[in-house]
C-alpha cells in the first residue's frame, strides 16, 4: 500500500532516517527556545528582554547564514551536519550546568541563546541542500512540506515536554534533555553515508565560495523575489512569536502550561496545513498561496492578541500555524527550485538569512513597541503592516515557470595553447557574434539573460559591445578570477544554460560558430 502523496518521500530510507534526525534537531531548538523564553520572564519584567530572546536565537542565522552555506557546499555535508549537532549538545550542557548552579542572569541567558542559535545557523543550510540531494524533483515540494511537519511536530512535542519539565523538574532539566536529544540526532547523522560530489577540480576556496553564493542569488530574479517576500513575511510574524510568552501570561491559566498549549496549537495547525498543501497547490499558484497565507496570518495573529480568553486564542493560533506553514513552505519550495545543486546550500542560506533577519529585526522592533504601547498594540501593528504591504510586493512573483537546473554536458574544451597555472588570472573570454541588424533588439535582450547566467556561474564582470565599423558584429566579454574558476564554470553548466546557449546561437548568421578567445592576465610589469 503506497503512502499518500504528502508522505511519499518517507518511502525512501535515506530521507526517512534524515527526517527523524531533523525532527530531533528541531525538538532541541524548540525546547531551548521555550525554556529560555520562559526563564527570561522569571529573570526580568522587561518586554524588550523577553523579545530579545527571539532575536538572540535568530540573529546568528542572519550573521552566519552565507558563510555556513558556503562551508556546506565545499565540505563533506554529513560531517558538517554532525558537527552542528555536537555544538548544540555542548551549549545545552553548559546552559544546564549554569542553571543548576543558579548562575544564570538575563544577559548571560541571551549570550547562551545566541550560542545555541549558531548551531541553528550552521545546520539549516546544509540540511536544506541535502533534501534536494536525496529526493527527486517531483517529490521535492512534498519533502519540504514533510520538513515543515517535522518542524511543527517538534513544535508540539518539544514545548510539551519542555513545559512538563518546567512545571515539574525545573528549567535546568530541559537543557539536559536537549543535550541528549541532540546527541541522538548526531548518531543518526553519522550513520548516513552521503554521496560524494564528482569533480576533477580542487575544492572551492571559502571566500570565493561566499562571493559566488551571494552573486548567484543577486543575479537570480526568482531568488531576489523569494528573499524579499520571506523577509517581509518573517517581519510580520515575528511579533506574535517573540511576544507569545507575554500573551500566555495575560490569558486565564497563565503559566508554562498555557505557553506550551499555545505553541502546541500553532504546531498542530501547521501539521494539518502541511497535509493539505498538495491539494491546495493543485488549485492555486505559488503567488496566490503566499498572498492568502499572509492575509490569514495577519488576521489570526491579531485575533490571538485581542482574544479575551484561551478558548478564542487557541483556535486563532491554530489558524496562525496553518497560514505560517503554507506561506513558508511555498516560499521555500520556490527557492529550492530556483537553485542548482552546486550552490544550493549557499542560496538557501541567503533565504534563511532573510527569514531570520526579518524575525530578529521584527522581534526588536515590536518588542520596543510592546514596551511603549503594550503587547496587543505591537502584534496588531505587525499584522496591519503585513497586510498593507501586500499590494506593493505582489509584483515580486515567486511563481511562473520553473527552469530545468539539472547538470548538463557541454562540448566546450578548455585546453589552452600554452600551459596555464590554475591560479593564474584573471581570465578574460571574448565571444564574437554576427547577427542580422534587424534582430538587434531581440539579440540584446537574450544577451541580458546571458549576462545574468554568466554572473550566476561565477564571472566577475560581463559586457557586450557593438562594432562601430561592422553592422551586426557584437563582442561579448566576461571575466573570471583565475583559470581554475574558468574551468569550474563547466561543472556548473545546467540544462537551462544549454537552452540559453541555443537561443544565442539562433541569432548568429555566420557559417562558422562564434569565435571564442581566452586571455590570461599577465602580472609581469615591463619597463
UniProtKB/TrEMBL annotation:
<keyword id="KW-0813">Transport</keyword>
<dbReference type="GO" id="GO:0022857">
    <property type="term" value="F:transmembrane transporter activity"/>
</dbReference>
<feature type="transmembrane region" description="Helical">
    <location>
        <begin position="108"/>
        <end position="132"/>
    </location>
</feature>
<keyword id="KW-0472">Membrane</keyword>
<feature type="domain" description="Major facilitator superfamily (MFS) profile">
    <location>
        <begin position="14"/>
        <end position="398"/>
    </location>
</feature>
<feature type="transmembrane region" description="Helical">
    <location>
        <begin position="144"/>
        <end position="166"/>
    </location>
</feature>
<dbReference type="Pfam" id="PF05977">
    <property type="entry name" value="MFS_3"/>
</dbReference>
<keyword id="KW-1003">Cell membrane</keyword>
<feature type="transmembrane region" description="Helical">
    <location>
        <begin position="226"/>
        <end position="248"/>
    </location>
</feature>
<dbReference type="InterPro" id="IPR036259">
    <property type="entry name" value="MFS_trans_sf"/>
</dbReference>
<dbReference type="InterPro" id="IPR010290">
    <property type="entry name" value="TM_effector"/>
</dbReference>
<feature type="transmembrane region" description="Helical">
    <location>
        <begin position="172"/>
        <end position="192"/>
    </location>
</feature>
<dbReference type="GO" id="GO:0005886">
    <property type="term" value="C:plasma membrane"/>
</dbReference>
<keyword id="KW-0812">Transmembrane</keyword>
<feature type="transmembrane region" description="Helical">
    <location>
        <begin position="254"/>
        <end position="277"/>
    </location>
</feature>
<feature type="transmembrane region" description="Helical">
    <location>
        <begin position="317"/>
        <end position="338"/>
    </location>
</feature>
<feature type="transmembrane region" description="Helical">
    <location>
        <begin position="46"/>
        <end position="67"/>
    </location>
</feature>
<dbReference type="InterPro" id="IPR020846">
    <property type="entry name" value="MFS_dom"/>
</dbReference>
<protein>
    <recommendedName>
        <fullName>Major facilitator superfamily (MFS) profile domain-containing protein</fullName>
    </recommendedName>
</protein>
<keyword id="KW-1133">Transmembrane helix</keyword>
<feature type="transmembrane region" description="Helical">
    <location>
        <begin position="79"/>
        <end position="102"/>
    </location>
</feature>
<feature type="transmembrane region" description="Helical">
    <location>
        <begin position="289"/>
        <end position="311"/>
    </location>
</feature>
